[in-house]
Design a protein that fits this description.
By secondary structure, this protein is mostly beta strands. It contains no helices and eleven strands. The model has no long low-confidence stretch (mean pLDDT 93).
Length: 123
């Protein structure tokens, strides 16, 4: 089993920044890569970013390129996402997820999910 716990969400004004964290524990063989997804009100959950635990295979959704940065601290088993220049369209519940495969942007590749953390961006 793999356990994922997100933290760092909250309310921020447009143009502001937040950093989300995802602490992972459990079977390391089941999590070669980590990803972030988000679900806005009334919308389906969608891909945001992914990173391999090696630090490679970093990919971003077009909507967040240049504003969001994904990173990891392998010693702490934690993945981070720095979000800058936030706008109201970024309001969503953000989930981290673990995959056996790096470089994947599809939900089906991720077998373990955190509980989600709310990010609200006010205009």
């Amino acid at each position: 089993q793999v356990q994922l716990v997100e933290s760092g969400g909250g309310l921020v004004q447009a143009g502001g920044s937040l950093r989300l964290s995802c602490a992972a524990s459990g079977r390391t063989l089941s999590r070669n890569a980590m990803g972030w997804f988000r679900q806005a009100p009334g919308k389906e959950r969608g891909f945001v970013a992914t990173i391999a635990w090696s630090g490679g295979s970093i990919y971003y959704a077009d909507s967040v390129k240049g504003r969001f940065t994904i990173s990891r601290n392998s010693a702490k088993n934690t993945v981070y996402r720095q979000m800058n220049s936030l706008n109201p369209e970024d309001t969503a519940v953000y989930y981290c997820a673990a995959s056996n495969h790096s470089g994947r942007t599809d939900e089906g590749a991720y077998g373990y999910w955190g509980q989600g953390t709310q990010v609200t961006v006010s205009s």
